[in-house]
Amino acid sequence: MMNIINQIPPKLSSQDWVGVDLEIFDLNQKQMHRPISGRFALLSIAHGEDVYILDKPEQVAPALEQINDAWWIIQNAKFDITHLRRWANVPPRERLWDTMLIERILFGGYYDTFALADLVRRHLFTHMEKELQKSFTGNEITPEQIQYSALDAYVLSKIVISQKKSMDSKSWKIWHEIDRPAMFAFMDFQGFGIDVEKWKLLAIRNKQRQEQIDAELPVNPRSYKKVKEFLKANGFKRLDDTEADSLEKAGLKYPNTIAAEASRKILESRSYGKMASTYGMNFVEDFLEYDGDFPFIFCNYWITGAETGRPSSDHPNMQNIPIRDTKEFRECFIPRLGHKLVIGDYTAQEVFITAYNCRDEALIGICNSDKDVYSAMAKLMYDVDIDKKDPLRKRTKGIVLGIDYGMSVQGLARNEGISDDEAAEILFKFFQTFPGMKTWMKKQENAKKYVTTTAGRKCWLNPFSNQSYRNALNSPIQGGAGDCTKKALANLHYHWPYVFEDIPFPVVGYIHDELVLDVLEEHAVIVSKFLEHTMVETANKMFPGMSFRADVKIADNWSEKD
Known about the structure:
This protein is α+β, with helices and mostly antiparallel strands. It has helices at 60-66, 77-84, 99-107, 116-124, 143-164, 169-187, 196-216, 224-233, 244-253, 258-278, 281-287, 349-358, 361-367, 373-382, 391-403, 409-416, 420-433, 435-445, 468-499, 524-542, and strands at 3-5, 17-25, 39-47, 50-54, 71-74, 96-98, 192-194, 288-291, 294-297, 300-302, 312-314, 333-334, 339-346, 450-452, 458-460, 507-511, 514-520, 550-555.
């Protein structure tokens, strides 16, 4: 029976477990991850059947001091601790159990929802009302809100009892050595600087580009019904829908038609329209912050955003800033005055992990050499010298990365604009050159319940999904890459104060295999060497026998890194 007590909890020991839940009035819904809006509402601390309710911000620091030695249980700890740091010093801690993140470690791919109500339903077999979550507005605390907040904290220890039954040593290691320390590193990120005027001009220009193309088209490119009717009447004999893949395939099949030229312009218009809206005025108006006069963006990182364990971001999504088709957007992201960006990314990270997993000797040899990985693979396949500009290098890169996602003969044919017979011949040559990959793929095909990354993260498979085999191939690679980069980030965060004692942790961006730092120009060279060392050492320890490489560049804007 839950007992609500309106006071600071007693001093607890390292044997105690407490549920912690924070409620805040009037949070900005677009920037809930940032401690810049809203006001303190309630802090609930549950120990056993007792729940201690604190309704004043000045109670936070003494309350947390009382439970400092105990194990903290928090649902989405990154959110709560980020905001608790507004009123108390909360350094990285080992005695922490994040029910949401641990649920993702235990059941990534098995379940697809991880909110507190979902965990209560799964572990405690009961329904939890969450309607009051949106009621924290104004200044007055109601008895219903107190009950709501207390219950949120109270159920956490009950969930832990159930989660522990599924927790094995490898899952615990993932939490203790990768996700938990990475979470604290993400919480210490700096904002990513942005040239606001340049961004706004780019948004205006993209809108103008869209409107100019629209004026040249005989049909509204955003009216899918009209587009389909026009294209079918002007050369596309068969067209199921007007999605990009369908239009591109139809353009290859019926190249010398009015429809082919129109579809190219339609896709171009849509692209500029998407850039003008997704990366337009709202991007800066919704998320811009200032450090003095310097503008920056702080996105929200989810420690485990994909079922493979890889992080994701939103509000805004910095991991989706375009780079392949245009560098214009990344040109807008800049360091602070007198600073440089230090940008490091792994060289062919997923290929190295593929080589480690499949144990193909030829592929391992290429990875562990000083050669360009994709050029060396193409040379071995075709027995001709290949440089980075050779189309065969690009094709080989597409093959090896596509195979990790279960690409078929038809998929390769479509991607390369070649016949199915040509694609089949290329894949035959590829597997003949790297037979270990074929063997590993056959092994993954037999996976039933789940596959694991090298670090031991489980990625569950849905036997009723046609994606199951693709996930069996992709999850160990993508998940392994996520584990590796997160671990490198965690190591960088842990060692940073020992190497650079008086310099705040300078990471401003995490983009899959890439870390971006914003440092004083005078520190850029030594920081770049430290970043490269940390990334390479982390990967080589996680994948023994491999000689990973990290490419690090000192830059004046984000686009300068290839």
